[in-house]
Design a protein that fits this description.
2 strands; mainly alpha
Length: 293
């Protein structure tokens, strides 16, 4: 094995297919995104170079600020909801004293395997202002209270973000369960001998040792919030007005709805930069956390 690892041609042979596939399906399309973001292009005819005109137009557009704010709101909602609940549920089902642990693991993960369209239709019916389950329950209880969850400008993005958080919490749950399983039982046995309660053991052992898992979960949730699209397109169509626009929805709306691919790809380029910035900042913060521990 050492003979193969010391041979540079053997290393190149093994990594070349992966590098080639990455270059074709990831790096090359990414270069095209940035290239066409500087052009006026309808997706068919030859592109016309316009310099920074698309970026200036995007930054001046009122929808750009709305889309950025919505991306961070979306990311904040799903991060808080998913990480908190997923951590609590993962710690609970990892306790051998809990009965029916396999059932709960399956139940928490079921929404992940459902179609996004099915989930959005389900929650769209639940949130219906006229015959929705939530408003109907309030009416049954004699409460003079009802909400148009998806029709109000300032709460629609939170309602859609909740649907996404509900569906994908099981994915974060599975990652955290896997992280907990990788922690040796010796740590908990030593904590029990020292007289630590279960709560203190999880606070001082489980959570710090899950820092790498939390890093991955945060990257998934925050970048997922910024590039949110499917739930928005199905449940609100970007409305009411432009209240639930995101950068991804701007790209879709202009590129495929108006055939302005150059302008649409400009929002994609900004999205890529924001996602890279989040990754760099989070890795830096978790690097500091590791040094402090």
């Amino acid at each position: 094995m050492k003979r193969y690892l010391s041979n540079p041609w053997a290393i190149i042979t093994f990594i070349a297919p992966a590098v080639l596939l990455f270059g074709i399906f990831v790096f090359y399309p990414l270069i095209q995104v940035f290239y066409y973001s500087f052009a006026e292009w309808d997706g068919v005819n030859a592109a016309k170079f316009v310099g920074l005109a698309n970026y200036m137009k995007l930054f001046k557009a009122s929808t750009f600020k709305v889309a950025n704010m919505n991306g961070f709101k979306f990311g904040a909602v799903i991060t808080i909801y998913q990480l908190v609940l997923a951590t609590v549920f993962a710690i609970a089902v990892s306790d051998k004293r809990i009965r029916c642990r396999k059932f709960f693991r399956t139940a928490y993960f079921i929404p992940v395997v459902l179609s996004v369209t099915v989930v959005c239709q389900l929650w769209g019916s639940i949130m219906d202002p006229t015959n929705g389950l939530i408003n109907s329950l309030a009416k049954t209880m004699g409460l003079d209270w009802s909400q148009n969850w998806l029709g109000k400008r300032f709460q629609a993005i939170y309602a859609v973000a909740f649907v996404n958080a509900w569906q994908w919490m099981g994915y974060q749950f599975a990652l955290i369960v896997a992280g907990i399983k990788s922690i040796g039982e010796d740590f908990y046995e030593a904590a029990e001998i020292d007289g630590a309660t279960s709560l203190k053991a999880h606070w001082y052992i489980t959570l710090p040792l899950l820092k790498d898992t939390f890093n991955v979960c945060l990257l998934i949730s925050l970048t997922g919030g910024i590039k949110a699209f499917s739930e928005i397109d199905i449940m609100t169509g970007g409305g009411p007005g432009n209240a639930t626009y995101t950068l991804t929805y701007i790209m879709y709306n202009y590129a495929f709805g108006r055939q302005k691919f150059g302008y649409g790809l400009t929002s994609s380029a900004v999205l890529v930069i924001e996602c890279l910035a989040i990754i760099i900042v989070l890795n830096w913060l978790f690097g500091l956390w590791k040094k402090l521990l």
